[in-house]
């Protein structure tokens, strides 16, 4: 069976078009880039395969790539995040779309394979989010004979790509579009922070004020979730792995505790690390009855679902995104979105205004690669700080926010890299 979206129902296409209209209105930076490239069509010779959560915002990015002349094949690369109406609207415009909302992990993998194989001569460029396409391309090079380069936009994905580069496995250049101030420190913190809390509230209807809310992982995503949950009155407690991160969390005013202590009395637990098995059986044993469990990190692996199943006597679907697990010892815990990404399943993913910045970085990286990927060696390539600043300036202009131009001396410091306050500065996890 194929996961290609073919002949979508007209009502679904209409719904998708309406959703895209709403997102487009809130993505002025992408609109500006689109009007810059629509005349020259710099992607005319390119076949772009993408694997990024298929939301309305991703749809606006896909529209831009098509307007720039590319042939595009796309999949969401996740079990729960595909917005079927957006998939339908894009398919109706001739984009090759694979997948649907509510796939199993094996089905997600099949949709990825189909996306990679959508073009007769294979893709020339990959746009990835968690290395599913990059990994598939590395394991089956015969399917991508004309592949020139890729972009990757997740923290965990970039870590993996660097590892493959060190092992000499990476045969093409990959542009890291994650480690930019305008992505990592904006999208992950303010976008995912808000949409995660939004997802929890939509899924459960819970009052956050006064609740003990445990955030596991205090990177850019965890920090955003912790700040937003605290803003709504929750008593936020943070669990960290790295000492540096723990210092940042403590100085931001959050109690930092090891999981076994943090989980005692927890009302809500949210994982945000990018690593598997962050909550395992021993952690589940420490939870009080009635706790809500969810994940906003990477895919469905952060909460060990096998350990949860082992302790479960019975499950009940009590709300659309809430599965109640009644445990052998009589307690119950409520798992949201099957342990998948709560913000993309129960809410709509990150707000369009934030994805405007993230996808502007992605679109500009694809345009750069189309113009000159042959000058890049296989390996991981960083986006220059000046580009990061350029995207921020475009966003500021769209928000009608003005700042002073730096003096020539200040500009020299800003562009020197590594100096505190320079464009090379980032705060690190
Ligand atoms: N839901 C979304 O829409 C969305 C958006 C952006 C990023 N992400 C994903 O969220 C994850 C985190 O992203 P980030 O930018 O915050 O990464 P990050 O590297 O800034 O932070 C991850 C943090 O988790 C910590 N950590 C790892 N294992 C831990 C453990 N067992 N217990 C406690 N802490 C642990 C690390 O030390 C690190 O500080 C990534 O997988 C990323 O791809 C999701």
UniProtKB/TrEMBL annotation:
A molecular function GO annotation: adenosylhomocysteinase activity
Superkingdom, taxonomy of origin: Bacteria
Keywords in alphabetical order: NAD, One-carbon metabolism
Protein family according to the UniProt entry: Belongs to the adenosylhomocysteinase family.
Annotated gene: ahcY
NCBIfam families: PRK05476.2-3 (NF004005)
Organism for this UniProt entry: Longimycelium tulufanense
Record-given protein name: Adenosylhomocysteinase
CC cofactor note: Binds 1 NAD(+) per subunit.
Binding site for NAD(+): 219-224, 343
Upper lineage: Bacteria, Bacillati, Actinomycetota, Actinomycetes, Pseudonocardiales
GO biological process: one-carbon metabolic process; S-adenosylmethionine cycle
Cofactor(s) for this UniProt protein: NAD(+)
Gene Ontology CC annotations of this record: cytosol
PANTHER family, per the entry: ADENOSYLHOMOCYSTEINASE (PTHR23420:SF0)
Entry annotated with the keyword NAD: yes
SUPFAM superfamilies the UniProt entry points to: Formate/glycerate dehydrogenase catalytic domain-like, NAD(P)-binding Rossmann-fold domains
Domain S-adenosyl-L-homocysteine hydrolase NAD binding: 188-349
């Amino acid at each position: 069976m194929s996961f290609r979206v073919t002949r979508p129902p007209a009502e679904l296409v209409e719904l998708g078009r309406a959703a895209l209209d709403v997102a487009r209105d809130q993505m002025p930076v992408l609109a500006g880039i689109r009007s810059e490239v629509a005349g020259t069509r710099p992607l005319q010779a390119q076949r772009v395969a993408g694997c990024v959560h298929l939301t309305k915002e991703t749809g606006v990015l896909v529209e831009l790539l098509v307007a720039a002349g590319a042939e595009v094949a796309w999949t969401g690369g996740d079990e729960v995040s595909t917005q079927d109406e957006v998939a339908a609207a894009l398919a109706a415009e001739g984009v090759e779309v694979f997948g649907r909302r509510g796939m199993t992990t094996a089905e997600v993998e099949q949709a990825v394979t189909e996306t990679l194989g959508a073009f007769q001569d294979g893709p020339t460029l990959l746009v990835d989010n968690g290395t599913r396409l990059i990994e598939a391309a590395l394991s089956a090079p015969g399917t991508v004979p004309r592949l020139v380069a890729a972009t990757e936009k997740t923290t965990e994905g970039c870590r993996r790509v660097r590892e493959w580069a060190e092992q000499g496995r990476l045969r093409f250049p990959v542009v890291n579009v994650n480690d930019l101030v305008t992505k990592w420190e904006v999208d992950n913190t303010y976008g995912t922070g808000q949409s995660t809390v939004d997802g929890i509230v939509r899924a459960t209807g819970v009052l956050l004020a006064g609740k003990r809310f445990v955030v596991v992982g205090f990177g850019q995503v965890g920090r955003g979730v912790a700040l937003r949950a605290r803003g709504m009155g929750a008593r936020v407690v943070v669990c960290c792995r790295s000492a540096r991160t723990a210092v940042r969390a403590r100085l931001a005013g959050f109690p930092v505790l090891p999981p076994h202590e943090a989980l005692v009395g927890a009302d809500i637990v949210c994982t945000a690390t990018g690593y598997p098995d962050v909550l395992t059986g021993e952690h589940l044993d420490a939870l009080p009855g009635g706790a809500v469990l969810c994940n906003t990190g990477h895919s469905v692996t952060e909460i060990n679902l096998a350990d949860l199943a082992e302790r479960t006597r019975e499950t009940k679907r009590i709300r659309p995104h809430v599965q109640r697990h009644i445990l052998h010892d009589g307690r119950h815990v409520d798992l949201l979105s099957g342990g998948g990404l709560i913000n993309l399943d129960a809410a709509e993913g990150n707000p369009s205004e934030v994805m405007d910045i993230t996808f502007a970085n992605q679109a500009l990286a694809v345009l750069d690669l189309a113009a000159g990927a042959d000058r890049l060696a296989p390996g991981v390539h960083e986006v220059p700080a000046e580009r990061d600043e350029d995207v921020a300036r475009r966003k500021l202009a769209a928000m009608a926010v003005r700042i002073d131009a730096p003096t020539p001396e200040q500009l020299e410091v800003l562009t020197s890299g590594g100096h505190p306050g320079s464009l090379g500065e980032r705060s690190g996890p």
